[in-house]
Amino acid sequence: MDLGLSLVKTEAEGDKVLACMDKSKASDYTQERVQLIKWELLQKIKGSEEAEKFLMENLANFRLRTIAIETAIRDVNLDKAIGIARDGIQADAKDKPGYVYNWYDWLLKIAMIQKDTDRIIEYARLLFVQSNHHDQDYYLLLKKTVIPDRWKAFVEVLITDIQKGSLWYPFDTIAGIFIKEEWWNRLFDLLKTQPSLHRVLRLMKNIWLPDIRVSWLACIQTGFFRYSQEVQREKTTRRYAYLRRMKKLGGNDQCNSLSGR
């Protein structure tokens, strides 16, 4: 990362820059950037020990905590990396819940390095069910890790937990599972409960198998019928809204004419 630190040539120059940074008052975002620059500057003019001390004192900074985890992994100090990630989960749980899944993702990466099957399943499952943090295919990772004989039962419990944990029906996630498992009958049963034409056409675009052509046609038909009803209701609602507005303006005769009276 080029932060202009090449301009600092001596420790004395670095100390002056550091002193200015310590006096700076800025927004949280800007302050995080300043801390990142300060860490790099400390590495350059003070050495790794001073930089490490500063790093560990400022783990509330998302980027610095990430660097601390990456450094610990590079140094093969996995226990330290795990501790930093777990502390991040606890620290960010209340005010920065979006960051929490990032720390869980790091725990997953470490578990994969350690080949810890139980932890891999635990973290991949949590990330698949609870987060939108999909840098990798957590479902595929689960399928590769769970014992094949237990997989179907595992998926059924997974589906139940996804449904329980969502404020609205997680259609795309559940449909995605049915598609990955090629459970076509269950996919079409799901589509029958929520026959959105847009949804049907979107899914069909990526999955077209001759054996399920009839089922797709039935879904399109149902979706089209519902779409037509929704359009008609919208037109009717809008029409009555216009008529009510005319009445408020004293246009009763015009309203009666338009409504066929």
H/E element order: HHHHHHHHHHHHHH
Total of domains: 3
Q: Helix amount, in percent?
A: over 70%
Number of helices: 14
Say how many strands there are.
0
Mean pLDDT: 79
Largest sheet: none
Q: How far from one another are the termini?
A: 75 Å
Strand content: under 5%
Nearest-angstrom radius of gyration? 29 Å
What does this protein look like?
This protein is mainly α and 261 residues long. The protein folds into three domains: 1-58; 60-165; 167-261, no CATH class. Helix content is 77%, strand content 0%. It contains 14 helices and no strands. It has helices at residues 11-23, 28-45, 48-57, 62-74, 78-92, 97-114, 117-130, 138-145, 148-164, 171-181, 184-193, 197-206, 213-248, 252-258. The longest helix has 36 residues, at 213-248. The protein starts with 10 loop residues before the first helix and ends with a helix.
